[in-house]
Protein backbone atom coordinates (compact mmCIF):
# COMPACT_ATOMS: atom_id res chain seq x y z
CA UNK A 1 0.00 0.00 0.00
CA UNK A 2 1.29 3.45 -0.87
CA UNK A 3 -0.04 7.02 -0.94
CA UNK A 4 -0.12 9.12 -4.09
CA UNK A 5 -1.01 12.78 -4.55
CA UNK A 6 -4.63 11.95 -5.47
CA UNK A 7 -5.34 8.58 -3.86
CA UNK A 8 -4.12 5.62 -1.82
CA UNK A 9 -3.27 2.53 -3.88
CA UNK A 10 -3.06 -1.10 -2.77
CA UNK A 11 -0.99 -3.58 -4.78
CA UNK A 12 0.14 -7.18 -4.70
CA UNK A 13 3.68 -8.36 -3.92
CA UNK A 14 4.70 -7.82 -7.55
CA UNK A 15 3.63 -4.16 -7.54
CA UNK A 16 0.48 -4.71 -9.59
CA UNK A 17 -2.26 -2.30 -8.51
CA UNK A 18 -5.28 -3.93 -6.89
CA UNK A 19 -7.54 -0.99 -6.14
CA UNK A 20 -7.55 2.77 -5.65
CA UNK A 21 -8.84 4.13 -2.34
CA UNK A 22 -9.84 7.66 -1.27
CA UNK A 23 -7.01 10.02 -0.44
CA UNK A 24 -5.87 10.24 3.19
CA UNK A 25 -3.29 9.00 5.68
CA UNK A 26 -3.75 5.19 5.73
CA UNK A 27 -3.28 2.55 8.39
CA UNK A 28 -3.79 -1.21 7.85
CA UNK A 29 -5.24 -3.14 10.81
CA UNK A 30 -4.68 -6.69 12.06
CA UNK A 31 -8.30 -7.40 11.03
CA UNK A 32 -7.47 -6.56 7.40
CA UNK A 33 -9.21 -3.17 7.43
CA UNK A 34 -7.74 0.14 6.26
CA UNK A 35 -8.52 3.42 7.95
CA UNK A 36 -8.01 6.70 6.06
CA UNK A 37 -7.72 9.99 7.98
CA UNK A 38 -7.53 13.57 6.72
CA UNK A 39 -8.40 17.14 7.69
CA UNK A 40 -11.95 16.60 6.45
CA UNK A 41 -13.14 13.09 7.31
CA UNK A 42 -12.38 9.51 8.36
CA UNK A 43 -13.01 6.41 6.19
CA UNK A 44 -12.76 2.66 6.68
CA UNK A 45 -12.40 0.23 3.76
CA UNK A 46 -11.16 -3.26 2.90
CA UNK A 47 -7.92 -3.66 0.91
CA UNK A 48 -9.87 -4.70 -2.19
CA UNK A 49 -11.93 -1.50 -2.08
CA UNK A 50 -15.13 -3.12 -0.81
CA UNK A 51 -17.05 -2.04 2.30
CA UNK A 52 -16.11 1.63 1.98
CA UNK A 53 -17.67 3.38 5.01
CA UNK A 54 -17.45 7.00 6.15
CA UNK A 55 -16.96 6.90 9.90
CA UNK A 56 -16.91 10.60 10.77
CA UNK A 57 -16.31 14.16 9.57
CA UNK A 58 -13.61 16.38 11.02
CA UNK A 59 -9.87 16.31 11.48
CA UNK A 60 -8.30 12.84 11.87
CA UNK A 61 -4.62 13.22 11.04
CA UNK A 62 -2.25 10.25 10.85
CA UNK A 63 -4.50 7.56 12.32
CA UNK A 64 -2.79 4.37 13.51
CA UNK A 65 -4.57 1.13 14.41
CA UNK A 66 -3.97 -0.52 17.80
CA UNK A 67 -2.93 -4.23 17.72
CA UNK A 68 -6.52 -5.35 18.47
CA UNK A 69 -7.71 -3.87 15.16
CA UNK A 70 -10.62 -1.95 16.72
CA UNK A 71 -9.03 1.04 18.53
CA UNK A 72 -6.85 3.66 16.87
CA UNK A 73 -5.04 6.89 17.62
CA UNK A 74 -5.01 10.14 15.65
CA UNK A 75 -3.80 13.73 15.89
CA UNK A 76 -5.96 16.83 16.03
CA UNK A 77 -4.62 20.30 16.74
CA UNK A 78 -1.29 18.94 17.91
CA UNK A 79 -2.89 16.66 20.51
CA UNK A 80 -3.05 12.85 20.43
CA UNK A 81 -6.47 11.21 20.72
CA UNK A 82 -7.75 7.64 20.85
CA UNK A 83 -10.99 6.28 19.45
CA UNK A 84 -12.56 3.02 18.41
CA UNK A 85 -14.08 2.07 15.06
CA UNK A 86 -17.26 0.01 14.62
CA UNK A 87 -16.93 -3.53 13.42
CA UNK A 88 -16.85 -3.71 9.63
CA UNK A 89 -19.83 -5.18 7.79
CA UNK A 90 -19.64 -8.92 7.15
CA UNK A 91 -17.68 -9.95 4.10
CA UNK A 92 -19.75 -11.07 1.13
CA UNK A 93 -19.81 -14.75 0.20
CA UNK A 94 -17.51 -15.92 -2.58
CA UNK A 95 -20.44 -16.14 -4.99
CA UNK A 96 -21.68 -12.65 -4.11
CA UNK A 97 -18.17 -11.24 -4.54
CA UNK A 98 -17.84 -12.90 -7.94
CA UNK A 99 -21.30 -11.66 -9.01
CA UNK A 100 -20.29 -8.08 -8.15
CA UNK A 101 -17.31 -8.38 -10.49
CA UNK A 102 -19.42 -9.87 -13.30
CA UNK A 103 -21.93 -7.02 -13.05
CA UNK A 104 -19.16 -4.40 -13.05
CA UNK A 105 -17.51 -6.15 -16.03
CA UNK A 106 -20.71 -6.26 -18.09
CA UNK A 107 -21.70 -2.69 -17.20
CA UNK A 108 -18.26 -1.41 -18.25
CA UNK A 109 -18.56 -3.24 -21.59
CA UNK A 110 -22.07 -1.91 -22.14
CA UNK A 111 -20.87 1.65 -21.45
CA UNK A 112 -17.86 1.26 -23.75
CA UNK A 113 -15.38 1.69 -20.85
CA UNK A 114 -12.47 -0.36 -22.18
CA UNK A 115 -9.99 0.47 -19.41
CA UNK A 116 -12.44 -0.36 -16.63
CA UNK A 117 -13.45 -3.65 -18.27
CA UNK A 118 -9.81 -4.62 -18.87
CA UNK A 119 -9.00 -4.02 -15.19
CA UNK A 120 -11.39 -6.88 -14.31
CA UNK A 121 -9.48 -9.42 -16.45
CA UNK A 122 -6.49 -11.46 -15.30
CA UNK A 123 -3.64 -12.24 -17.71
CA UNK A 124 -5.41 -15.22 -19.24
CA UNK A 125 -8.65 -13.28 -19.54
CA UNK A 126 -6.84 -10.52 -21.43
CA UNK A 127 -5.55 -13.11 -23.91
CA UNK A 128 -9.05 -14.50 -24.40
CA UNK A 129 -10.46 -11.06 -25.22
CA UNK A 130 -7.41 -9.88 -27.16
CA UNK A 131 -8.93 -10.81 -30.52
CA UNK A 132 -7.55 -14.34 -30.86
CA UNK A 133 -11.15 -15.56 -30.86
CA UNK A 134 -13.30 -13.78 -33.49
CA UNK A 135 -16.48 -14.56 -31.56
CA UNK A 136 -15.32 -12.74 -28.41
CA UNK A 137 -15.01 -8.96 -28.23
CA UNK A 138 -14.41 -6.98 -25.07
CA UNK A 139 -16.36 -4.02 -26.45
CA UNK A 140 -19.52 -5.03 -28.27
CA UNK A 141 -20.76 -1.68 -29.56
CA UNK A 142 -21.99 -0.70 -33.00
CA UNK A 143 -25.34 -1.42 -34.58
CA UNK A 144 -27.13 -3.40 -33.29
CA UNK A 145 -26.07 -2.08 -29.90
CA UNK A 146 -25.51 -3.97 -26.66
CA UNK A 147 -28.67 -2.98 -24.76
CA UNK A 148 -28.82 -5.22 -21.68
CA UNK A 149 -27.73 -8.51 -20.11
CA UNK A 150 -29.05 -11.18 -17.75
CA UNK A 151 -27.23 -13.48 -15.33
CA UNK A 152 -28.74 -16.88 -16.11
CA UNK A 153 -26.72 -19.19 -13.84
CA UNK A 154 -23.99 -18.76 -11.25
CA UNK A 155 -22.08 -21.27 -9.13
CA UNK A 156 -18.82 -21.83 -7.28
CA UNK A 157 -16.95 -24.54 -9.19
CA UNK A 158 -13.70 -24.81 -7.23
CA UNK A 159 -11.65 -23.75 -4.21
CA UNK A 160 -7.98 -22.94 -3.59
CA UNK A 161 -8.24 -20.74 -5.51
CA UNK A 162 -11.96 -19.94 -5.43
CA UNK A 163 -13.41 -20.36 -8.91
CA UNK A 164 -16.87 -19.32 -10.10
CA UNK A 165 -18.76 -19.78 -13.36
CA UNK A 166 -21.50 -17.52 -14.73
CA UNK A 167 -23.68 -17.81 -17.82
CA UNK A 168 -24.67 -14.36 -19.09
CA UNK A 169 -27.14 -13.60 -21.88
CA UNK A 170 -26.37 -10.46 -23.92
CA UNK A 171 -29.19 -8.77 -25.84
CA UNK A 172 -28.65 -6.47 -28.83
CA UNK A 173 -31.11 -3.90 -30.14
CA UNK A 174 -31.70 -1.81 -33.24
CA UNK A 175 -33.96 1.24 -33.00
CA UNK A 176 -35.27 0.09 -29.60
CA UNK A 177 -36.16 -3.35 -30.94
CA UNK A 178 -34.38 -6.52 -29.78
CA UNK A 179 -32.82 -8.17 -32.83
CA UNK A 180 -30.26 -10.71 -31.57
CA UNK A 181 -28.86 -12.42 -28.48
CA UNK A 182 -26.11 -14.80 -27.45
CA UNK A 183 -24.66 -16.22 -24.24
CA UNK A 184 -21.20 -15.98 -22.71
CA UNK A 185 -19.90 -18.42 -20.10
CA UNK A 186 -17.49 -16.57 -17.79
CA UNK A 187 -14.98 -18.23 -15.46
CA UNK A 188 -13.70 -16.11 -12.58
CA UNK A 189 -10.76 -16.89 -10.29
CA UNK A 190 -9.99 -15.21 -6.96
CA UNK A 191 -6.47 -13.79 -7.13
CA UNK A 192 -3.90 -14.40 -4.41
CA UNK A 193 -3.09 -11.49 -2.15
CA UNK A 194 -5.94 -9.17 -3.14
CA UNK A 195 -8.63 -11.85 -2.76
CA UNK A 196 -10.47 -10.20 -5.65
CA UNK A 197 -12.20 -12.19 -8.38
CA UNK A 198 -11.09 -11.53 -11.96
CA UNK A 199 -12.40 -12.89 -15.26
CA UNK A 200 -10.02 -15.69 -16.30
CA UNK A 201 -11.82 -17.27 -19.28
CA UNK A 202 -14.85 -16.88 -21.51
CA UNK A 203 -16.64 -18.87 -24.19
CA UNK A 204 -19.55 -17.80 -26.35
CA UNK A 205 -22.57 -19.56 -27.82
CA UNK A 206 -24.22 -19.06 -31.22
CA UNK A 207 -25.92 -15.80 -32.11
CA UNK A 208 -29.71 -16.14 -32.27
CA UNK A 209 -31.73 -13.75 -34.41
CA UNK A 210 -34.92 -12.50 -32.76
CA UNK A 211 -38.25 -11.75 -34.38
CA UNK A 212 -38.20 -14.27 -37.23
CA UNK A 213 -40.59 -16.79 -35.69
CA UNK A 214 -40.04 -20.40 -34.74
CA UNK A 215 -38.21 -22.90 -36.90
CA UNK A 216 -39.39 -26.51 -37.35
CA UNK A 217 -36.48 -28.80 -36.56
CA UNK A 218 -38.29 -32.18 -36.31
CA UNK A 219 -41.74 -33.71 -36.62
CA UNK A 220 -43.20 -36.43 -34.44
CA UNK A 221 -46.07 -38.44 -35.95
CA UNK A 222 -48.22 -40.36 -33.50
CA UNK A 223 -51.70 -41.95 -33.66
CA UNK A 224 -54.56 -40.47 -31.71
CA UNK A 225 -58.28 -40.98 -31.47
CA UNK A 226 -60.74 -38.47 -32.76
CA UNK A 227 -64.45 -38.75 -32.31
CA UNK A 228 -66.75 -37.19 -34.90
CA UNK A 229 -70.28 -36.25 -33.99
CA UNK A 230 -72.22 -35.49 -37.21
CA UNK A 231 -75.67 -34.12 -37.49
CA UNK A 232 -78.47 -36.63 -37.88
CA UNK A 233 -78.61 -38.13 -41.37
CA UNK A 234 -75.11 -36.93 -42.45
CA UNK A 235 -72.15 -39.11 -43.29
CA UNK A 236 -68.61 -38.45 -42.18
CA UNK A 237 -66.54 -37.14 -45.09
CA UNK A 238 -63.18 -38.26 -43.72
CA UNK A 239 -63.74 -41.96 -44.11
CA UNK A 240 -65.86 -42.53 -41.03
CA UNK A 241 -69.46 -43.62 -40.87
CA UNK A 242 -72.46 -43.34 -38.65
CA UNK A 243 -74.68 -46.16 -37.59
CA UNK A 244 -77.70 -43.99 -37.29
CA UNK A 245 -78.95 -40.53 -36.32
CA UNK A 246 -77.07 -39.09 -33.39
CA UNK A 247 -74.67 -42.07 -33.15
CA UNK A 248 -70.98 -41.95 -33.65
CA UNK A 249 -68.17 -44.25 -34.67
CA UNK A 250 -64.62 -43.78 -33.52
CA UNK A 251 -62.29 -42.48 -36.21
CA UNK A 252 -58.54 -43.13 -36.18
CA UNK A 253 -56.27 -40.53 -37.66
CA UNK A 254 -52.60 -39.83 -37.44
CA UNK A 255 -51.60 -36.61 -35.76
CA UNK A 256 -48.52 -34.47 -36.42
CA UNK A 257 -46.76 -32.75 -33.54
CA UNK A 258 -44.06 -30.27 -34.65
CA UNK A 259 -41.01 -29.51 -32.51
CA UNK A 260 -40.11 -25.85 -32.75
CA UNK A 261 -36.89 -23.98 -32.17
CA UNK A 262 -36.38 -20.27 -32.27
CA UNK A 263 -35.95 -17.18 -30.10
CA UNK A 264 -39.66 -17.09 -29.29
CA UNK A 265 -39.42 -20.66 -27.95
CA UNK A 266 -36.44 -19.98 -25.67
CA UNK A 267 -36.97 -20.15 -21.94
CA UNK A 268 -34.68 -18.57 -19.42
CA UNK A 269 -32.65 -21.01 -17.54
Q: What's the arrangement of secondary structure elements?
A:
Elements: E1 2-3, E2 8-11, E3 17-21, E4 25-28, E5 34-37, E6 41-45, E7 53-57, E8 61-65, E9 71-76, E10 79-84, H1 94-110, H2 114-118, H3 123-132, E11 145-158, E12 163-174, E13 177-190, E14 197-204, E15 208-209, E16 215-227, E17 250-261
Antiparallel strand pairs: 1-2, 2-3, 4-5, 5-6, 6-7, 8-9, 9-10, 11-12, 12-13, 13-14, 13-15, 16-17
What are the salient characteristics of this protein?
5-stranded antiparallel β-sheet; single chain; 3 helices; 269 residues; N-terminal domain of TfIIb; mainly beta; 4-stranded antiparallel β-sheet; disordered C terminus
Give an overview of the whole structure.
This protein folds into 3 domains: 2-84, N-terminal domain of TfIIb, CATH 2.20.25; 94-209, Roll (Nuclear Transport Factor 2, Chain: A); 215-265, no CATH class. The chain has 3 helices and 17 strands. The chain has helices at 94-110, 114-118, 123-132, and strands at 2-3, 8-11, 17-21, 25-28, 34-37, 41-45, 53-57, 61-65, 71-76, 79-84, 145-158, 163-174, 177-190, 197-204, 208-209, 215-227, 250-261.
